[in-house]
Amino acid sequence: MPSWVNYRHGWLRTVLAPRPSTDHVSGTDRVIQRFISPCPTCGKERVEAGDGHEYSLFASEIAREHSPELLHFFQLYKAQSWAELNRIHNFDGRFNAALIYIVRCNRGLSALAVRSPEELWDSDSLLDVVVLDDRGAAAIKILPVVFKAL
Question: If you compute the radius of gyration of the chain from its CA atoms, what whole number of angstroms results?
Fold first, then answer.
């Protein structure tokens, strides 16, 4: 067999060989890490996977211009009406979205208001951060919120 055949087969085995993935961080995980570094609750300068920070997509609303629903969504956020806000989970991929994430660490909870664009080339942007006081944290802890580790 010619030497180039062995080379080609060796190269092909190298290219097609299964490789274990070392990157288990989702795109949302990276966005949350970027938005909470430093963590507004505990002060950790750089939030990383496995350091005890967790998040939950708490609420979402379609971000149409001149939308009374969007106005109501942000009024609830500003008033910290967490139980009512947690009931809103609207999404339409044709429009931008307003998202509220709750981030939990060993010191407490933070709420992040995020603009998520419908354009794939655009990136999410942080609109606001609120560190929850004991009353706000207690209101969220009684809700059926599922957290995901960063």
Answer: 21
Query: Torsions phi, psi of 37, nearest 5?
Result: -110, 110
Q: Residue 59 and residue 70: Cα distance in Å, rounded?
A: 12
**136 secondary structure, DSSP code:** H
pTM of the predicted structure, to 2 decimals: 0.82
Decide the pairing of beta strands 125-131 and 108-116: antiparallel
Cα dihedral 6, 11, 16, 19 sign: positive
pLDDT band of 128, cuts 50, 70, 90: very high
* Residues 60/90, Cβ–Cβ less than 8 Å: yes
Per-residue pLDDT reduced to its tens digit, 6-26: 545 555 555 555 555 445 667
Cβ proximity of 35 and 50 under 8 Å: no
Measure the CA–CA gap between 29 and 35, rounded to whole angstroms: 10
| Token representation of residue 13 | 């085995």
